[in-house]
């Protein structure tokens, strides 16, 4: 973050970065003490101060982390005294951060009321989540009691098995050893499955961390693009202002005759543009008329083709009738009556 800030400041300049008015704040979570609520520090323009407080809060979080991540099951790894000590140190650091950063936000940090207000807010959040903590503690106690009972039952079962083994013959001892081997293999399988599950959880946690880093990088890139856009807009405004000043200065320096010539040239350009537009409209009208004429000629050609096809069909029919009549007249069994009858017809 510091490197990105320095590079952006060197590219766009200190004044542009000050004009942007970027401010930073920390978003903190303590799910065991305040549940799903989030804590925010006051906004501050100094990046180094914000990073220093972030480093201190990260050290407190690292004290409770497991494989680099603060996950559920804190009671399985830490005692109540350790959690309370970490919470007290976190509260003191948060109060100090709010009051020290509040000096830049026009807040009376030296007033005991401000510290008391922050402390009361933390106490209220912790009190609101006390029911959830009690549930977690009861669940933890139940799990540990069940685990102790299970260990006691296992120890009692082991003692009974040892006594039974001492009184059983060798065959029974061998059978029990086979059973124990099966139980041992089952126990090994369960533990291997548990290790695989823990490895998958660790891989999932790493993927989540990578996603958070990618989101942070995209956020930094978005801020950098915003700064570049602000710089480009500033340069564009400056260029426009300089161009307007140059045009005004050149207009003031021109003579009346030059101004008249400029107006005449502008009028000529406007007339030429109007004539070009009129010619384009006339050409469009001519194209429409030509399209209509082509459509009419095409329809006429289609009608002529239909008439020609009908004439060809009629000609073939007449030719077939003539050929049939001629074949009928050239029959070998033709009689005079047939000829007279054909003539009468």
Q: What does it look like?
A:
The structure is a single chain. The protein has 345 residues and is mainly alpha-helical. Among the domains are: 2-158, no CATH class; 281-330 and 337-345. Helix content is 83%, strand content 2%. The chain has helices spanning 2-12, 14-20, 31-34, 47-63, 74-77, 80-102, 112-128, 130-167, 170-253, 256-329, 336-344; strands at 27-29, 38-40. The chain has a two-stranded antiparallel ribbon with strand order 1-2. Helix 1 packs across helix 2 and helix 6 (80-102) runs antiparallel to helix 7 (112-128). The longest helix has 84 residues, at 170-253. The radius of gyration is 49 Å and the shape is flat. The termini are far apart. Residues 103-110 have low confidence and may be disordered.
Q: Give the beta-strand count.
A: 2
> How many DSSP H or I helices?
11
**Percentage beta strand:** under 5%
**Poorly predicted segments:** 103-110
Radius of gyration: 49 Å
Structural class of the helices, strands and pairings? Answer: mainly alpha
| Percentage of residues in helical conformation | over 70%
Judging from the principal axes of the Cα atoms, what is the shape? flat
Secondary-structure element string = HHEHEHHHHHHHH
Report mean pLDDT, rounded to a whole number: 80
Short description:
The protein is mainly α and 345 residues long.
List the helices and strands and how they pair.
Layout: H1 2-12, H2 14-20, E1 27-29, H3 31-34, E2 38-40, H4 47-63, H5 74-77, H6 80-102, H7 112-128, H8 130-167, H9 170-253, H10 256-329, H11 336-344
Antiparallel strand pairs: 1-2
Helix pairs in contact: 1-2, 4-6, 6-7
């Amino acid at each position: 973050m510091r490197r990105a800030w320095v590079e952006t400041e060197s590219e766009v300049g200190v004044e542009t970065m000050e004009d942007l008015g970027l401010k930073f704040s920390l978003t903190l979570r303590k799910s065991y003490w305040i549940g799903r609520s989030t804590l925010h520090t006051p906004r501050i323009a100094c990046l180094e101060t914000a990073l220093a407080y972030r480093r201190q809060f990260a050290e407190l979080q690292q004290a409770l982390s497991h494989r680099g991540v603060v996950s559920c099951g804190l009671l399985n790894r830490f005692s109540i005294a350790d959690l309370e000590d970490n919470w007290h140190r976190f509260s003191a650091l948060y109060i100090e951060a709010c009051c020290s950063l509040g000096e830049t936000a026009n807040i009376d940090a030296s007033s005991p009321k401000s510290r008391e207000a922050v402390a009361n807010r933390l106490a209220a959040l912790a009190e609101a989540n006390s029911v959830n903590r009690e549930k977690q503690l009861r669940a933890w106690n139940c799990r540990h009691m069940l685990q102790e009972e299970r260990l006691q039952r296992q120890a009692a079962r082991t003692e009974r098995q040892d006594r039974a083994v001492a009184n059983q013959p060798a065959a029974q001892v061998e059978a029990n050893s086979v059973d124990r081997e099966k139980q041992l293999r089952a126990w090994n399988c369960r533990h291997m499955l548990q290790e695989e599950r823990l490895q998958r959880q660790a891989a999932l946690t790493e993927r989540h961390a990578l996603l958070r880093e990618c989101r942070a990088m995209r956020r930094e890139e978005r801020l950098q693009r915003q700064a570049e856009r602000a710089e480009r807009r500033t340069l564009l405004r400056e260029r426009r202002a300089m161009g307007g000043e140059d045009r005004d200065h050149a207009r003031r320096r021109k003579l009346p005759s030059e101004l008249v010539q400029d107006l005449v040239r502008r009028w000529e350009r406007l007339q030429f543009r109007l004539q070009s537009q009129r010619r384009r409209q006339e050409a469009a009208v001519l194209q429409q008329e030509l399209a209509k004429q082509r459509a009419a000629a095409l329809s006429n050609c289609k009608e002529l083709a239909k008439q020609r096809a009908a004439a060809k069909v009629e000609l073939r029919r007449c030719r077939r009738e003539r050929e049939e009549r001629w074949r009928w007249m050239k029959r070998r069994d033709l009689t005079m009556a047939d000829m007279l009858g054909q003539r009468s017809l």
